[in-house]
Amino acid sequence: LLNRNASFWVFFFSRSSARLVAPLGCLVSRQKHTLPDLPYDYAALEPHINAEIMQLHHSKHHATYVNNLNVVEEKYKEAVAKGDVTTQVSLQPALKFNGGGHINHTIFWTNLSPNGGGEPKGELMEAIKRDFGSFANFKEKLTAVSVGVQGSGWGWLGYNKEQGRLQIAACANQDPLQGTTGLIPLLGIDVWEHAYYLQYKNVRPDYLKAIWNVINWENVSSRYATCKK
């Protein structure tokens, strides 16, 4: 899901509590996380998402999550070396927020394409029909969940590996889907205002209507095929 620099820490959550476990050896030896390149130009998704939004979203917002993640991981590594459990615990919200921001956006960029839109094909389409009745039904439900996110967050299509079915979920802020729900992320829709405000103002439904025109179904289908193995 991420570039090879972004796989060095892991969230483990239980129903009653949330705790972050950092593989200590990896924290000591890891390379810094880096901002992934977009697979298209900033203007490539116009008119649905304009170039100014894409430039700011990628080079400023996502870059900030990456930079902050590197900083907090260094602090966490120092706390581990000192055996300072209190500091380790205090850093976990920042790891979750910035790490989630990096994970979510890295998926998001690949979920979009200037050649996107339309409907998926093959196994993914069959699974959507099986689990939601029809593609139109699925689209309506994911749009409604995304519109309904209070404040900032994400709407997701995920795969429930235990049940072998697709599932729609919403996550607040930058909470990573798999780390907080156990669902494997297939398609994420960013509904933070920085993803659309410059073009769509406060009318989130207009942004969500437009984004379906640039969904990269080949990428989503590939993710679905991978997680079923």
TrEMBL record:
Name of the protein this chain belongs to: Superoxide dismutase
Cellular compartment(s): Mitochondrion matrix
Keyword Metal-binding listed: yes
Primary site of residence: mitochondrion
PANTHER family membership: SUPEROXIDE DISMUTASE 2 (PTHR11404), SUPEROXIDE DISMUTASE [MN], MITOCHONDRIAL (PTHR11404:SF6)
Protein function: Destroys radicals which are normally produced within the cells and which are toxic to biological systems. Destroys superoxide anion radicals which are normally produced within the cells and which are toxic to biological systems.
Manganese/iron superoxide dismutase N-terminal domain residues: 32-113
Pfam families with a match to the protein in the record: Sod_Fe_C, Sod_Fe_N
Similarity annotation: Belongs to the iron/manganese superoxide dismutase family.
Subunit structure: Homotetramer.
InterPro entries named in the record: Fe/Mn_Superoxide_Dismutase, Mn/Fe_SOD, Mn/Fe_SOD_BS, Mn/Fe_SOD_C, Mn/Fe_SOD_N, Mn/Fe_SOD_N_sf, SOD_C_sf
Keyword rRNA-binding: no
Catalytic activity: 2 superoxide + 2 H(+) = H2O2 + O2
Residue positions binding Mn(2+): H57, H105, D190, H194
Signal sequence extent: 1-18
